[in-house]
């Protein structure tokens, strides 16, 4: 295992997922938005407008680079071509942070374009940690691993998700990205207490927080089944969990994720403002 | 202990007729049918959404309902081969060639070809262009051996249908109604803005030869063989007016740039 210093180059303030339709508003007046996050794969073309926008924005904002295609939980070896594209992006963009998901998305048949779940066993923890070690070695930096939204459980799992993430982080030296909406979604879907999950989460490893909106459906028995859609506002119970986390552990870089049915800038900025109020409340209280 | 069975998971994901894989359970341990369907839906919906973003003109022509149903067939037949979703859907034009429900719109596959070429040009590498006059500085006796470096975003789409007029009619206010007839389109993004223009129907083969590194002499000779009336000056002028020239080198000469 390679050792990496746990650090975050992101300010403990709100950030938003960057969407090109918001560029003018962001350059004009970003309001409380202090940093931007991009999906790494959208900037792996050769150049043109996406690269030009990112060069301009990265001069004004710290950028967090969030991968959605590495398939860190995949059984097969990591895609070296894809890893090379990522290394190239990280080299020219010099993002403040790189993060990826505890999930798999690639199989022998190709790329499945979804974040698929893993059983939590010591065997998969070692496998995931080996892949993270490879990523961190190629990139020459620490990465954060994000807790997933899960819809199903595996009969073969032997560990809780928090124990699994702690184990992977210890084996690989990675940090963690805490998605509070994913905690709420998974806890509802898997019938556990989100606050107990958060109390058990290794917060000292967290370098970034995600907040996003989800859809509410029902499973075949009429039990609530929440789906992580990033297509609407963060709901109040998720804000309440977030506020508890910030009150307990202090201000942390916090991203509003909105990836589908993307709203006009004032709506997204309003979500960032709500996060800012919570983050500022803590720093004011600490003064 | 072995790794989880992602092969069975993947197979069940792409084929709704298959049962939920063993060991995928609800919180109470029962098989997670509805919950597994979330992943099934996510995969198809996510890929369909990627195609909607990639082929907006095709979708406008056939309507959202038709497009989404067609896309759901396509994504199962051609799932992405790698995580670079910005270029997903390369086989859609060929798929439409052989898609019977779209047979009444024979121009549709070429509209898709144009949209894909635009996307390739949009994401192509950057390169600094040079003034077309640089070609004029090449001594006449060396012109035959000149090799033109063309911008990496340059794409050509040739169609038996008025593909550019159809694209404009569906995207630009006040664009004229397309008239039947073949069209060839040159797409280039020399700076950040992408441009399209109609080019003569005998230009695509000539430009393709230049793109593959043929000398001006060889490309012109091949064009004259295809059509004795080929006008090199006219074609070069048309090509260079798109500001897509990035270099001029003379084959067999070490000093790459001509004087001037």
From TrEMBL, chain A:
Top-level lineage group: Bacteria
UniProt-listed Gene3D superfamilies: Divalent-metal-dependent TIM barrel enzymes
Transmembrane domains' residue ranges: none
A Pfam family recorded for this sequence: MbnB_TglH_ChrH
UniProt similarity note: Belongs to the UPF0276 family.
The protein's name: UPF0276 protein GSH16_12210
UniProtKB/TrEMBL annotation, chain B:
Domain Putative DNA-binding: 6-96
InterPro entries: DUF2063, DUF2063_N_sf
Pfam families: DUF2063
Protein name according to UniProt: DUF2063 domain-containing protein
Species this chain originates from: Oceanomicrobium pacificus
């Amino acid at each position: 295992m390679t050792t990496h210093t746990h650090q975050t180059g992101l300010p403990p303030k709100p950030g938003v997922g960057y969407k090109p339709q918001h560029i003018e508003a962001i350059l004009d007046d970003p309001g409380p938005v202090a940093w931007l996050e991009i999906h790494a794969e959208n900037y792996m073309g050769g150049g043109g407008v996406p690269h030009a926008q990112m060069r301009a924005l990265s001069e004004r904002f710290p950028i967090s680079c969030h991968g959605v295609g590495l398939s860190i939980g995949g059984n097969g070896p990591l895609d070296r071509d894809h890893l090379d594209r990522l290394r190239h992006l990280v080299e020219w963009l010099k993002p403040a942070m790189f993060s990826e998901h505890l999930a798999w998305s690639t199989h022998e048949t190709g790329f499945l374009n979804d974040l698929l779940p893993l059983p939590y066993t010591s065997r998969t923890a070692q496998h995931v940690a080996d892949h993270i070690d490879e990523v961190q070695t190629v990139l020459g930096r620490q990465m954060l691993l994000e807790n997933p939204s899960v819809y199903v459980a595996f009969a073969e799992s032997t560990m809780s998700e928090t124990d699994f993430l702690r184990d992977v982080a210890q084996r690989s030296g990675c940090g963690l990205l805490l998605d509070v909406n994913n905690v709420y979604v998974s806890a509802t879907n898997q019938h556990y207490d989100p606050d107990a999950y958060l109390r058990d989460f290794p917060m000292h490893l967290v370098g970034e927080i995600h907040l996003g909106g989800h859809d509410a459906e029902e499973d075949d028995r009429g039990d609530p089944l929440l789906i992580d859609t990033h297509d609407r506002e963060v709901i109040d119970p998720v804000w309440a969990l977030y506020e508890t986390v910030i009150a307990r552990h202090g201000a942390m870089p916090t991203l509003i994720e909105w990836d589908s049915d993307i709203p006009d800038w004032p709506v997204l900025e309003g979500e960032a403002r709500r996060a800012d109020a919570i983050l500022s409340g803590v720093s004011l209280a600490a003064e | 202990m072995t790794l989880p069975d992602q092969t069975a998971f993947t197979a069940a994901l792409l084929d709704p007729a298959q049962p939920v894989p063993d060991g995928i359970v609800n919180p109470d341990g029962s098989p997670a049918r509805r919950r597994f369907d979330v992943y099934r839906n996510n995969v198809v919906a996510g890929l369909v959404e990627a195609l909607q973003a990639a082929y907006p003109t095709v979708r406008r022509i056939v309507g959202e309902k038709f497009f989404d149903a067609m896309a759901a067939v396509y994504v199962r037949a051609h799932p992405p081969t790698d995580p670079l979703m910005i270029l997903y859907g390369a086989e859609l034009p060929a798929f439409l060639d052989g898609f019977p429900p779209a047979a009444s719109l024979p121009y549709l596959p070429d509209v898709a070809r144009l949209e894909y070429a635009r996307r390739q040009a949009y994401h192509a590498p950057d390169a600094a262009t040079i003034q077309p006059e640089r070609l004029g500085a090449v001594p006449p006796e060396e012109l035959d051996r000149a090799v033109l470096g063309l911008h990496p975003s340059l794409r050509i789409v040739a169609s038996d249908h008025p593909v550019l007029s159809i694209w404009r009619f569906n995207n630009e206010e006040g664009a004229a109604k397309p008239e039947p007839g073949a069209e060839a389109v040159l797409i280039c993004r020399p700076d950040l803005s992408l441009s399209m223009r109609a080019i003569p129907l005998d230009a695509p083969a000539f430009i393709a030869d230049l793109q593959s590194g043929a000398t001006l002499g060889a490309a012109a000779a091949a064009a004259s063989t295809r059509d004795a009336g080929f006008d090199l000056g006219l074609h070069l002028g048309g090509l260079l007016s798109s500001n897509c020239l990035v270099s001029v080198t003379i084959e067999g000469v070490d000093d790459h740039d001509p004087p001037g």
